[in-house]
């Protein structure tokens, strides 16, 4: 049975980079292949993984829209579900160790109950082929709230070293509780963290009833790779962010 890890957090906290580093460690530790799901409308995960060509591939959202618009024009003799699965398969970008699926932007007006049910079944079947599925999610947990993902083994909430980041982390945690999602464990990571927290930051953590499960130090190499257009999966092993994520990943995947 595959483990599903959903990564969420406020925009700008480094959520997608953390998802990329997590995938890097899963692959390097032999836990492959990994199915990476870009469920963020901004869709930056392809670049982080070095699969930027994937942005030219059809997204799940586009396939869903096309089905919704043309559902009465399915080729004769082909069941609608088979036709939809064929469309969805075109949104899967395959590489040696990581396969990528891009969810795309939210749909327009109309009832999508039928197509969302089909999408859920497709993702459950597809995800079962991988030991790990990593979802780079929006802070609002939109795709998870529609149950278009499997049960979540780990919900990894990313905050940076800011009060706004912590507020967003608290909202994600509370939203997951309100929706009564099937989550094995919630993990809080503080990205770009200093060596020690200030009194105000510790007080904010206590007020939100949050306890960090790990910290990723500010790593200039991450910013350098980003500005140079290099994927974070190519960061060297001695990168401080990589070293931190090695230990954190082992904690995340532990039973």
- Order of H and E elements: EHEHHHEEHEHEHEHEHH
Helical proportion, percent range: 40-55%
Per the CATH scheme, the topology name is Rossmann fold
Residue-averaged pLDDT, rounded?
Answer: 86
Q: Name the strands of the widest sheet in spatial order.
A: 3-4-2-5-1-6-7-8
| Overall SS class | alpha/beta
Cα Rg: 18 Å
What is the CATH superfamily classification? P-loop containing nucleotide triphosphate hydrolases
The tally of beta strands, per DSSP, is 8
CATH architecture: 3-Layer(aba) Sandwich
What is the C-level CATH assignment? Alpha Beta
Helical segment tally? 10
- Note the main sheet: 8 strands, mixed
Residue stretches low in confidence (pLDDT < 50, at least 5 long) are none
Structural domain tally? 1
Into which percentage range does the β-strand content fall? 15-25%
General form:
globular
Q: Measure the end-to-end span.
A: 13 Å
């Amino acid at each position: 049975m595959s483990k599903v890890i959903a990564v969420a957090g406020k925009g700008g906290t480094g959520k997608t980079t953390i998802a990329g580093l997590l995938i890097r460690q899963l692959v390097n530790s032999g836990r492959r292949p990994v199915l990476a799901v870009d469920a963020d409308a901004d869709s930056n995960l392809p670049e982080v993984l070095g699969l930027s060509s994937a942005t030219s591939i059809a997204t799940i959202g586009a396939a869903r829209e096309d089905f919704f618009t043309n559902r009465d024009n399915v080729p004769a003799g082909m069941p609608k579900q088979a036709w939809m699965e064929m469309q969805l398969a075109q949104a899967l970008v395959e590489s040696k160790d990581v396969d990528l699926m891009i969810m795309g932007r939210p749909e327009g007006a109309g009832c999508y109950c039928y197509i969302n049910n089909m999408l859920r079944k497709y993702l459950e079947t597809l995800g079962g082929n991988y030991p790990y599925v990593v979802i780079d999610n929006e802070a609002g947990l939109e795709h998870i709230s529609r149950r278009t993902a499997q049960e979540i083994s780990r919900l990894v909430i990313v905050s940076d070293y800011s009060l706004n980041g912590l507020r967003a982390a608290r909202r994600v945690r509370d939203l997951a509780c309100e929706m009564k999602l099937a989550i094995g464990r919630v993990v809080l990571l503080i990205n770009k963290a200093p060596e020690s927290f200030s009194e105000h930051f510790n007080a904010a953590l206590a007020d939100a009833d949050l306890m960090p499960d790990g910290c990723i130090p500010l790593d200039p190499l991450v910013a350098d790779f980003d500005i140079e257009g290099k994927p974070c999966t190519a960061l060297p092993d001695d990168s401080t962010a990589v070293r931190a994520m090695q230990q954190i990943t082992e904690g995340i995947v532990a039973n």
